[in-house]
Amino acid sequence: MSRIRFCGSPDHALNRRAFLGAGAAAGATLAADMTALNALAAPEVNTALKKTQKRVILLWLAGGASQLETWDPKPGAPTGGPFRAIKTDVPGLQISELMPKMTQRMKTTCLIRGLNTKNGDHGSGAKIMMRGRRDEAGVRYPDLGAVLAREMGRAESKVPDYVTFYTQTEGRGSAPGDSGFLGARYAPMELTTNNTPEFIKRLETISDLDHQERSDLRDLLGKQFGKGRTSETMNSQNEAYERVRGIMASEKLFDITQEPQKVRDRYGPTQFGQQCLIARRLVEAGVPFVRVARAWWDSHGQNFETHQEMVPELDHVMATLIDDLQERGLLDDVMILTLAEFGRTPGINASLGRDHFASAWSSTITGGGIKGGSVYGKSDPKGNTVISEEVDAGSLFATIYSALGINPHKNYYVGSRPIPLVNPGVEEIKAVLK
Q1: Which of 5, 22, 98, 353 stands 20 to 30 A from 75 (CA)?
Q2: C-alpha distances in angstroms, 207 versus 29, 195, 198, 217, 245?
Q3: Which residues contact 367 (CB under 8 A, 6 or more apart)?
Q4: Which of 246-255, 326-335, 366-375 has the lowest mean pLDDT?
Q5: Where would I find the H helices in 111-157?
Q6: CA 304, CA 126: separation in Å to the nearest integer?
């Protein structure tokens, strides 16, 4: 739209790495159990999931939503903008008037107001906020989704471990899912064109028997090729192919027509709402991590009109998702995050916009072992700096891991080199943990 001005950051070519690896040709050669996943909806299965498995839905506010028009308003300040701050169900806590539904759900939510992540670039900022740290020379770190797929996925699961929706084009190349040194086994299933995965249906021209025989042939050739060879890449790729049978059986989880009309109406007709409904269906079936990206918040021009349009949608969809999970008894076990590359500047530019700002911005954590109603961090009256309880990306990630029951100081190994989940010396925010 003409009223939205872009920062000029290059939009990199789309990375189509997906969980299915080589794409349609490879996917068509594998056997699949195309039966419905009715067993996943059985009460005893859901009960077992609720007892043993945490899951995460990340609402990725691509481009950088303004903290001043959402979680940390500064009404009356020169930097505050035109919107009021309104009371919430947590005494003393106010958020933007553009989020009236979330004002009644802050008791479920932890608000982090003291983020200082020190990187205002779309590409490198997105990498930091998806990984919790910068890559090093010779080490490509896995992102949050890949780590949680590794930690919370189950080898026998019939659903994907990591799904990401990013169907708008703006900023997509800056924030692809990346399993890093964990390998293809934990790479995401990326949906970039519609809400249903491509290449997971058995072709109608291939019979069940042909499908099975092709799978058997691939297994035979793979075993012959693997004799006498040791390769982490080969092992990771083989593990990924082994998962395809279950993945193909999960097709109906992406179909919101399986939901009652009143549920679909509740989430609303927008693409963001529909994808969040699919995310709920996925985590309910046991998917450990789902990212739903909503673009494009990069409001260098006409910031207030942009947020007046987009924040109410976030408010409605996020509130609906919280209520839906709570009513299903899942909110204690499913964590909802809001994250972006960075926030927006307190200063208002000549185009009535806000620019990139990583020095004092906000995120939220709801459910999944976090202390609802808590607020951590404080910015100064104009929103320029964090004046207490500053949080960097590493501490935020350590807190997320701890809330999910994962030791943030445990080591992975690249060869013989130990690599902890967060950098040495980084600690979780104990004040917001249950």
Answers
A1: 5
A2: 11, 26, 19, 15, 15
A3: 108, 322, 325, 331, 332, 333, 334, 335, 336
A4: 246-255
A5: 122-131, 144-152
A6: 23
User: What DSSP character marks residue 224?
Assistant: H
Strands 417-420 and 378-379: unpaired
Helix or strand run (H / E) with residue 266: helix 261-267
Angle among Cα 239, 254, 240 to the nearest 5 degrees reads: 5
Q: Average pLDDT, stretch 202-224?
A: 77
**Single-letter code of the amino acid located at 15:** N
Would you state the pLDDT for residue 288? 97
β pairing state of 109-115 and 375-376: parallel
Q: What one-letter code names the amino acid at 76?
A: G
Helix (H) or strand (E) holding 111: strand 109-115
For residue 139, list its beta bridge partners: 136
- CA dist., res. 239 & res. 405, Å (int): 25
Return d(Cα 186, Cα 177) in angstroms, integer: 10
H helical segments located in 297-434: 303-327, 393-403
Q: How far lies 411's CA from each of 177, 265, 424, 434, in Å?
A: 21, 45, 11, 24
Q: Which residues pair with 344 in a beta bridge?
A: 356
Q: What is the DSSP string of 63-105?
A: TT--GGGTTS--TTSTTS-SPPEEE-SSTT-EEETT-TTGGGS
| CA–CA separation, 247 and 223 (whole Å) | 22
- CA-to-CA distance for 327 and 331, rounded, in angstroms? 8
Q: In the chain, helix, strand, coil percent, each to 5? A: 35, 15, 45
Confidence of residue 207 (pLDDT cuts 50, 70, 90): confident
Confidence (pLDDT) at 123: 96
Q: Is the peptide bond before 71 cis (omega within 30 degrees of 0)?
A: no
Is-contact 247 31, C-beta < 8 A? Answer: no
DSSP 3-state of 364: strand
Q: Give the pLDDT score at 40.
A: 41
Q: Tell me the C-alpha distance between 6 and 171, whole Å.
A: 10
- Phi and psi at 52, nearest 5°, equal -120, -15
Tokens of 226: 């693997």
Q: For residue 127, report the phi and psi dihedrals to the nearest 5 degrees.
A: -60, -45
The whole-angstrom separation of Cα 64 and Cα 362 is 10
CA pair distance 429, 396, nearest whole angstrom: 7
Tokens of 411: 């080591």
The span from the CA of 95 to the CA of 106, in Å, is 9
Residue 290: its H or E element: strand 289-295
